[in-house]
Amino acid sequence: MTKPEKLSAVKGMNDILPGQSERWQWLEAQVRDLMDGYAYRNVRTPIVEHTQLFVRGIGEVTDIVEKEMYSFEDKLNGERLTLRPEGTASLVRATVEHNLLYDGGKRMWYIGPMFRHERPQRGRYRQFHQIGAEALGFAGPDVDAELILLAVALWKRLGLSQWRLEINSLGQPAERQAHRTALIAYLEQHQDVLDEEAKRRMYSNPLRVLDTKNPAMQAMVNAAPKLIDYLGEASLAHLRGVQAILDANGVPWTLNPRLVRGLDYYNLTVFEFVTDLLGAQGTICAGGRYDYLIEQIGGKPAPAVGWALGVERVLELVKELGTDIPTPQPDAYAIVPDAGAMPQVLTTLTALREAGVRVQMHAATEQGMGSMKSQFKKADASGAHFALIFGGDELARGEVTVKALRDGQGAQTTQPLAAAADWAHHLQSRA
Known about the structure:
Elements: H1 21-37, E1 41-42, E2 48-50, H2 51-58, H3 63-68, E3 70-73, E4 80-83, H4 88-97, E5 106-115, E6 127-136, H5 141-158, E7 164-169, H6 173-188, H7 196-201, H8 206-209, H9 218-222, H10 233-248, E8 254-255, E9 267-274, E10 283-289, H11 293-296, E11 304-310, H12 311-320, E12 332-335, H13 342-354, E13 359-361, H14 372-381, E14 386-389, H15 392-396, E15 399-404, E16 412-416, H16 420-428
Parallel strand pairs: 1-5, 7-8, 12-13, 12-14
Antiparallel strand pairs: 2-4, 3-4, 5-6, 6-11, 7-9, 9-10, 10-11, 14-15, 15-16
């Protein structure tokens, strides 16, 4: 019989294994607690959406829609479907579909996997994970600033300090149109400098030309018409409102007139948190205001603003800075010399676990339970503070021996099996 071929994960779609997953759980716990403190409520959307949602929401001539989406035809009904490449469009779709703004604005957050067909590299994968915070139904700069402060509060919790905040304003559609006309005219005068990608985008999405990384185009781009020079007083006042709140809270920021973001739905405030510690993938969190997206997706016009962070990139930064992340360890390890005692042992362990004690049980193998010496080695390696020894003599007396493995090493007591919940606190006292 031929041995089956060993199967591997799809390139760029990674397993998160024990030893890694604890870091993810730690980050997720910090986010959940922080979102509760800011009164943001969790929402969960499907991984698969209609392709048209992203074409209409993100923009037909964006890199995401043109090159990166995982799209396919449903074999049952011929619908065009897509694995979600980002979370905002899905959240807005859910808001519109379920009429969530009927009684006023909503603050929501999401977490989950996204999918883009990219060349995998550090911090940039085909399946990646985002955490996003979105405030829908609020028009003022105060909520833009609140969301930025929410991200800053998260960095403090995670022990991250080596970042900078870049902000800009994309203004309103009429202002962008005036700038677009001037920008196209400018680019037409410098076609000899443009690379093929810029020439392709010059008429369809000229703002994205300004975001080029091509060194040969930098001087030309730096001299291009700046959108901020085309903003009216209302747009400038909105930007100043955000800046004033950041200043009052001691949050440093830099105005970056070339910051345009890669999605078409933004207007007014846009921002990025950037670090120099992760090479080319330096953006760890980004977002902005998208006052027209709800209407584009079929809802009644309503303002909105939000951000998303890349979980993999944030965890890379946490690792780079050597932030100490607690690793969960059991309070106690159950040593069981005789497999026949398992009914009694598991009854006791269930009572301890229900009382809040984290217990790891030694399990039998095909060779049996193993020697006491080998079980003690595993108990010590587990990081547990106590060993619970379910020996034959102890069980005959209805007891278990509790031996300290860390503080007060070697000290031991006996405890009654029938009253496990009463002495459970003893196992947590030094954990």
